[in-house]
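Entry 14. Structure prediction run on the chain below.
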Amino acid sequence: MHADTPAAPCDGASPLVIRDSAPADFPAIAAIYAHHVLNGTASFEETPPGADELLARHAAVLGHGLPWLVAERNGRVAGYSYATPYRPRAAYRHTIEDSIYVDTALRGLGIGRALLRALIERCEAGPWRQMIAVIADPRGGSPALHRSVGFEPVGTLRAVGFKHGEWRDTLLMQRALGAGSTTLPGR
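Output returned:
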């Protein structure tokens, strides 16, 4: 799925368009993320960053040659996804981490799945071989979403975060991209 590619309708009425993000999207992205930061456990951030900070993060993602996508429905941002390097050391250069956030009012319509599928497709076109999901709320819907597109659980980090008055686990899931580890890099 490439930029400005319609995805399957998410509710039978409105087409969903997955496209590359643009600076004008960041007030909506900031609002979606702020809700998750303040009310959920999908992110371990406790203070929502503003649109300017998210634009700086966006620039860093693009600087690594990685995608930052948005799902647009009825002309408004319904969710977004992006990939980041998994770790900064050179040996990890073929491994990336995904992030997905959907407007809470639009959950359950397939937007997260469409975003994740498009992100995987875009990343498979690059040099990356593994995608990691670091899921900060293993009790939520993210594990099932990731399983539906080929991720497998690879471990749980117990009580590594403290948010909303509780210790939080982190579930690690992993999926091969393209040839994965069956061939050497660059082939």
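The helical segments are 26-39, 51-63, 111-124, 142-148.
Filed with the rest of this week's runs.
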